[in-house]
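Worked example 2:
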Amino acid sequence: MTKRIIYSLSVILFFFQTGFAQSDSQADKIVSDVLNSVNTTAFKTNFKLDIRDKANNQNQSTSGTITIKGSKFYIDMMDMKAWYNGKTQWAFIPQNNEVSITEPTEKELSETNPIAILSGFKTKSFIRFSKKKSNEYYIIEMIPKVKTSDILNIEIQVNKNTHILVSLKLTAKKGNTTLLTLNNFQKNIKVTDNYFVFNASKYTGVIENDLR
């Protein structure tokens, strides 16, 4: 289940329906502005992740915080913490006092970091404003160019005043949905690179499972 949560935090965490022939330039620019903003400075945000498994009629929710600095990130949830320093990832399960160490591929990273997902899908999708209307948010759909994609639609909402990403909803072809909601978004935070590295000295007796 933990692996599934990490996976969703991307795929969600970033971004379809047939029928659109080209991207809307203004919608495309809004997505670009969001990416440019978060890629040039470190930021931290609270998140709530809601996963609905339609086939098994199951719903799951979790929440926590995520800090991102370029390609580096730190995810903090009650039942899991994950650090990535640009090469190595540590996934720590407090209940087991165990940390798994890996060197994830680009694809695996895009399934962990929501900003990486958004960035990856931007070049692979048609981008259009949704037919849904809001006075507070831009509602944008990202439509996959490849019809064989497992993803049917990604819908993002961006605050019109701050241009901050506030939610991302991914719908799979089987009807499963993943909704990531962000709040208390803090830009320009100051963190060193060591913030994104697991420090074993802080966890007495931790079991290290090195899978590299």
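The longest strand covers residues 58-69. Residues 89 and 102 are 5 Å apart (CA to CA).
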